[in-house]
Design a protein that fits this description.
Length: about 210
């Protein structure tokens, strides 16, 4: 009877591990999926930022339509005639090489244009520039000739002192109009122009102090 009344030991309490906690350092599948999704999102955002930077650089460097530059090569004076009598006069032909430097990554097509040569404030000659095109990252060179004459000047009496000094101060102006076409994506009109100043040595029959801007 005493044995029956003797207290029996209690059954051990079972410890149930929660499924949402790490077991032995191993993460559950749901938590691993969330981490993978976060990493994928970070990778996608990083790739988008890199692509945006690449497109920005590409657009600013390759798709930017710049105005081509004009430059003067060799200049030759031909058939020079001048006099300083009661009616001072001069006549000659200028032969020059005009360069159209295209720094764009697309072709520059320009239309025919007219340039001018001036003595003081009077235009004394006009040059004809034909249509053409400058390839991408290249320079198109044109041979231009212009007949220059004092017949264009309404009052030639002021020329007497210049001719007596043996030199004439001249200037020229050229302006082109055309379109830059980059990969048929970017098409922009550009108007390169250039003004030059020079001195004609009458006795030496050469041009001196040629500067252009």
């Amino acid at each position: 009877m005493q044995e029956d009344l003797q207290a029996k030991p209690l059954a051990p309490v079972q410890d149930y591990t929660r499924s949402d906690l790490e077991i032995g350092g191993i993460k559950p599948k749901a938590l691993r999926r969330e981490e993978k999704s976060s990493k994928c999102l970070v990778y996608v955002l990083a790739i988008m930022v890199i692509l945006g930077a690449v497109l920005l650089i590409f657009g600013s460097v390759f798709l930017r339509a710049r105005t081509p530059d004009l430059e003067i090569g060799s200049v030759t004076v031909r058939n020079l005639k001048y006099g300083n009598s009661s009616a001072p006069s001069f006549n000659f032909t200028l032969v020059t090489e005009l360069g159209v430097e295209n720094t764009n990554f697309g072709v520059f097509r320009f239309e025919n244009a007219t340039g001018s040569v001036s003595c003081g404030s009077s235009v004394v000659g006009e040059m004809k520039i034909p249509t053409g095109r400058a390839q991408a990252r290249a320079t198109e060179r044109l041979n231009i000739s212009v007949d220059v004459s004092s017949l264009w000047i309404p009052d030639t009496m002021n020329l007497s002192s210049n001719i007596s000094s043996g030199s004439l101060d001249l200037s020229s102006h050229i302006k082109l109009s055309g379109k830059v076409n980059i990969l048929d994506i970017m098409k922009r009109r550009r108007h390169p122009e250039m003004t030059c100043f020079m001195t004609l040595n009458l006795t030496g029959r050469t041009l001196q102090d040629l500067t252009c801007d």
